[in-house]
Amino acid sequence: MVSGAGSNMAALLEASTDPAYGAAVVAVGADREGTEGIARAERAGFATFVTPFSKFADRAEWNAELAERIGAYEPDLVVSAGFMRLLGPEVLNRYTVINIHPALLPAFPGAHAVRDALAYGVKITGATVHIVDEGVDTGPVIDQVAVRVEPGDDVASLHARIKTVEREMLVDVVGRLAREGWTLRDRDVRLGSGPASTHE
C-alpha cells in the first residue's frame, strides 16, 4: 500500500522478482489517484488498485471497501510502504499489516517524525518496522535500525539517509516473515518460528 512515490515499494517489487526471496507481491494499492507509486507498479507489470479516501462518506466506509479490495488478492501480509492513512478494524481484523516508520519508535510517531527528531535535538534516530494496530505508530516492533544525526542535517538530508536503511530493513523483514514465519506474544514479535504465522 502506497500514498506517494513508492520508493520502499519499488525495493520490494525488485526483491520479489528473485525466487529465493520467498515473497511475491500480488498487488499494489493506493488511497488516491495519480500516485507515482501506482504508476511505477504498473510499469513493472504488477496488478494495482486505487481506493480513494475522498470518495467515501466516512473512514469506516472507506476501510470496509479497502478491506474488500485487498481481499480480492488474498494476501498473507499487507505492507504499508509510505501509506499515509490510518487503518481501522475493518482492515486490521482481517489482515496482518506491517509499516515502516522513519524514527525509532516509540519516539516521534506520526507524519513528521524526521522533523520532530531534529527539533528535539536527538543525536540518533532511525527507522522501525512494526505491526500496525489502531493507534498512530503504536504497534509491536519487529525490527529497528539506528541512524546518527550529523551536524548540519536538515529534514531532507536526514530523511534521505533514513530512507536508505528503511528500504534495506523492509526488504529484509518482509522476506524473513515469508520464509521463516513469526509469532506474536503480547508485544514480542519473534521471527523464525516456522512457515505459519501465529498469534499467541
Automatic annotation (TrEMBL):
The keyword Cell cycle does not apply. The keyword rRNA-binding does not apply. (6R)-10-formyltetrahydrofolate binds at residues 59, 84-87, 99. It catalyses: N(1)-(5-phospho-beta-D-ribosyl)glycinamide + (6R)-10-formyltetrahydrofolate = N(2)-formyl-N(1)-(5-phospho-beta-D-ribosyl)glycinamide + (6S)-5,6,7,8-tetrahydrofolate + H(+). N(1)-(5-phospho-beta-D-ribosyl)glycinamide binds at residues 6-8. It comes from the Bacteria. The record marks 137 as: Raises pKa of active site His. Keywords: Purine biosynthesis, Transferase. InterPro entries: Formyl_transf_N, Formyl_transf_N_sf, GART. Pathway: Purine metabolism; IMP biosynthesis via de novo pathway; N(2)-formyl-N(1)-(5-phospho-D-ribosyl)glycinamide from N(1)-(5-phospho-D-ribosyl)glycinamide (10-formyl THF route): step 1/1. Its EC number is 2.1.2.2. Residues 1-174 form the Formyl transferase N-terminal domain. The active site is at 101 (proton donor). HAMAP family: PurN (MF_01930). Belongs to the GART family. Catalyzes the transfer of a formyl group from 10-formyltetrahydrofolate to 5-phospho-ribosyl-glycinamide (GAR), producing 5-phospho-ribosyl-N-formylglycinamide (FGAR) and tetrahydrofolate. This is Phosphoribosylglycinamide formyltransferase. The gene is purN.
